[in-house]
Amino acid sequence: WRLKQAQAKTVALQFPEGLLLYATTLADIFQSFADVRDVVILGDVTYGACCVDDYTAESLGCDFLVHYGHSCLVPVDVTRMKCLYVFVDISFDVGHLCACVEHNFAPGSNLILAGTIQFASAIQETRLRLVESYPALAVPQAKPLSPGEVLGCTAPVVEDAKGKDAIVFVADGRFHLEAIMIANPTIPAFRY
User: What GO molecular functions are on record for this protein (predicted)?
Assistant: First the structure.
């Protein structure tokens, strides 16, 4: 719908490496259902939300960029063309995460819950499920990022760090975890 609204004719697609395999399928969908004439798949993979490649897309004659997988660290009103961020949401058994937290941390522990954008909805659901047992459970925010979201270059500094027992971090790698650990070196961190 957004592509039709913008009357996009030449669309650039940008992906992190793990999602690049879906590029040709999405290109076919956009051409079939969104009146897009040409789709350019940017082969240089994106490594983060700060890597929106609007300059390359512009030089290739694109009038719209679809950036998959990362949050909008670069505001859409400053890109060289119209831009749409598509967040990837990875689902998993949130009940298992809650059980792990309850097994490893005593009720009432003062915990921080954070992770990468792919797990933002799971982080919010986990917070809702655990808030009764952990009333001080906090999901910090480093604006303009979403609550609980951490990037390799942008991590929230937790207020009153001395009173926090641990950071529970939801991610599929170590890079982003290390960012929040560097920003909060006195708080022990655990990755799920």
Answer: 2-(3-amino-3-carboxypropyl)histidine synthase activity; iron-sulfur cluster binding; metal ion binding
Q: Are residues 16 and 66 in the same domain?
A: yes
Strand partners, 41: 13
Per-residue pLDDT at 1 = 85
Are residues 74 and 120 located together in one domain of the fold? no
Tokens standing for 23?
């590029």
Share of the chain above pLDDT 70, in %: 93
How many Å separate Cα 170 from the centre of its chain?
Answer: 11
CATH code assigned at 171: 3.40.50.11850
Q: Which of 175, 187, 128, 125 lies closest to 150, judged by CA?
A: 175
- Say how far apart CA 133 and CA 103 lie, in whole Å: 12
All residue ranges of the chain with pLDDT < 50 are: none
Torsion region of 7: left, alpha or beta (phi above 0 gives left; psi -120 to 50 gives alpha)? left
Closest CA to 167 of 154, 178, 151: 178
- Taken in order 91, 99, 129, 140, the sign of the CA dihedral is negative
Token duo for residue 83: 């831009």
pLDDT of residue 47: 61
What is residue 142's predicted lDDT score, i.e. its pLDDT?
Answer: 87
What tokens does 113 get? 């819950």
pLDDT at 74: 62
- How many domains in the chain? 2
d(CA 162, CA 187): 7
